[in-house]
Structure to design on (301 residues):
C-alpha cells in the first residue's frame, strides 16, 4: 500500500534530484522551490504531498488554485515519480491526494504538464485528462551564440535591477494576457506579482533584460539562473502590443544571453508552445536545439 504524506521544505532537495532525471531542461533551486511552496500555501490554498521508499522520497505532488486568472475554480497541479519506481501506483496515489485537495478548496478544473512520452501520456489519459498544448524544450550552448545585434535608434536596454519592478510588470502583465495556454493569465495584481516573480530567488535581476523604446519599457526577458551549475532557463519573454513586430524580443534575448555567457554560464534552456512561431524562430536563430517536450493536460473536477 502506498502511503502519501504531507511534504515539507526539507523535500526540496530530493525533489530537485528527481526533476533532474525527469525534466533535465528545468532549472530551479532549493530556495526557489521553497519560495513557490510558501506562496502557494499562503495565497493559493496550496498543498504538497510526497511518497517515500527505502531510498528516500520517490514521488511528489503539489496542487493549488490559479490566482492569476479570472476563471473561477481554475487550478494547477504537478505529479512526479522517480523513473525507477514507476508502475507501483505511486503516481496514482499522489494524483488522488492532489485532486482531493483541489476539490476541498473549490477547484473545478486542473491543469498540469506531463512529459511528452507514451507511458506518461497514457497515465494522464487513463486518469481522465485531455491532452492539449505541446511545449517544445530546447538547449542552447552559449559558446555558439550569434553576435550581438545592433540597437536601432531610440532603443536602449537595462538589466531588471536597473529598470526596477514597475517596468518589468508593465511589460509582463500585458504579454502574459496573450500567452498560449489552457487558462488565461488575465487577473495579475502587482502586489502578488511583486511577491511571486520579482522576489523569486531564482530570478537573476542582473541578467534579466528590459528593452526600452524612447525610454518606455517595451520588452523583457526573464532568466532563472543556477550559478552553481552554470545553467539558466529563459522562463518568459514578452513584448507590449504596441511594440511588437520590431525584433525587440530578439534583442532582449541576445543581450541577456551574452551577459549570461560573460558571467560564466555555459548553457541555457527554454520552453515554448508549438503555436508560438515567432518565439520559436528567435530561438532557432539563437542556436537552440530541441531536447524534449511536455504536454498540457486538462481535467474537469
Amino acid at each position: 500500500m502506498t502511503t502519501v504524506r504531507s511534504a515539507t521544505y526539507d523535500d526540496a532537495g530530493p525533489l530537485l534530484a528527481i526533476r533532474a532525471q525527469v525534466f533535465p531542461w528545468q532549472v530551479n533551486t532549493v530556495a526557489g522551490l521553497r519560495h513557490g511552496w510558501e506562496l502557494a500555501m499562503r495565497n493559493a490554498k496550496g498543498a504538497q504531498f510526497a511518497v517515500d521508499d527505502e531510498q528516500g522520497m520517490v514521488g511528489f505532488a503539489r496542487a493549488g488554485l490559479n490566482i492569476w486568472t479570472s476563471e473561477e475554480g481554475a487550478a494547477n497541479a504537478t505529479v512526479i515519480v522517480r523513473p525507477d519506481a514507476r508502475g507501483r501506483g505511486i503516481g496514482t496515489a499522489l494524483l488522488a491526494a492532489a485532486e482531493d485537495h483541489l476539490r476541498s478548496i473549490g477547484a473545478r478544473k486542473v491543469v498540469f504538464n506531463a512529459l511528452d512520452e507514451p507511458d506518461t501520456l497514457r497515465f494522464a489519459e487513463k486518469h481522465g485528462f485531455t491532452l492539449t498544448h505541446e511545449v517544445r524544450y530546447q538547449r542552447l550552448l552559449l559558446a555558439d551564440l550569434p553576435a550581438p545585434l545592433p540597437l536601432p535608434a531610440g532603443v536602449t536596454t537595462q538589466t531588471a535591477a536597473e529598470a526596477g519592478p514597475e517596468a518589468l510588470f508593465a511589460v509582463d502583465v500585458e504579454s502574459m494576457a496573450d500567452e498560449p495556454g489552457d487558462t488565461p493569465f488575465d487577473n495579475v495584481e502587482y502586489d502578488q506579482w511583486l511577491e511571486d516573480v520579482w522576489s523569486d530567488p531564482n530570478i537573476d535581476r542582473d541578467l534579466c533584460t528590459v528593452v526600452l523604446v524612447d525610454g518606455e519599457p517595451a520588452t523583457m526577458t526573464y532568466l532563472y539562473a543556477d550559478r552553481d551549475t552554470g545553467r539558466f532557463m529563459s522562463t518568459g519573454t514578452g513584448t507590449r502590443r504596441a511594440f511588437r513586430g520590431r525584433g525587440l524580443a530578439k534583442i532582449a534575448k541576445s543581450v541577456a544571453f551574452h551577459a549570461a555567457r560573460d558571467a560564466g554560464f555555459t548553457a541555457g534552456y527554454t520552453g515554448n508552445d508549438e503555436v508560438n512561431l515567432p518565439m520559436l524562430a528567435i530561438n532557432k536563430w539563437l542556436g537552440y536545439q530541441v531536447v524534449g517536450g511536455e504536454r498540457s493536460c486538462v481535467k474537469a473536477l
